[in-house]
What does this fold into?
Amino acid sequence: MKEQLTEIIRKVYHKKNRNLFTFLTGAGISAESGIPTYRGVDGIWIKGTKFHKPEEFGTFKYFKENPEEVWQYSLFRKKMFENAQTNESHHEIVKIENILQDRFHLITQNIDNLHRRAGTERLYEIHGKAREIKCSNGCKGIENLPAEIEGKDIDEDLTEKDIELLKCKECGNWMRPNILWFDEYYDEKTNKKFSSLKMAKNSGILFIVGTSGATNLPMAIAETTLKYGGTIVDINTEDNLFTALIKEKKNKIIIRETSTQALKTIHKILQNIAEE
Ligand SMILES: [Zn+2]
It folds into this structure.
């Protein structure tokens, strides 16, 4: 596997066109930081007697009916994200970016901000940013979540002040987190849909790390890279929907290791090639 990986990395490194190294990451990369997956059992919000499936709870429809509850949940997650530490995988990716510079791009499905905190600069957060808000009634403009609003414990309610700060200054409706919910579509402004597909087209290699392919833009990114002759490297602990996509294809490498292990290997290979 390592020989094959070295060979393809060297080939793309010396290519003149379609020579980007793109990384696509998901919840698996934050697991070591103690952040549960949204779909995982631990990730499901339980408050009082209510019990929801993520596909019901994580929707704009649910937010419109229960804005306070969804905000409590978001602020509970905010506290969890802020208390989490970046892990070795995040740091290996930064080292790889330092070697590749503008030929490196990272597309993440995570909204936990850990890649940015670790120091990644060329970052596309396709599921949005939990640290930003926008009007749920469609008024234009994206703002930062006001600094006065703090993360909450699971049983903590919103304060009067929180509620006031979470209302749109234009129309008085609730502001909402600037993230993608299950009943919404990817766009360019929040999700970098077209930018990431263009990147996929120009990628010599797409490394898929800690994500199973359950959402449609990541899958389209992988399909685009394949279509234009790029190679897919699937780094996950088990088979997933991306594996099914590439299984019969020539341009693929499947790695069943932890993300940290695999990223360390990739970093080392690149370091050697850059010094050749
Ligand atoms: Zn508004």
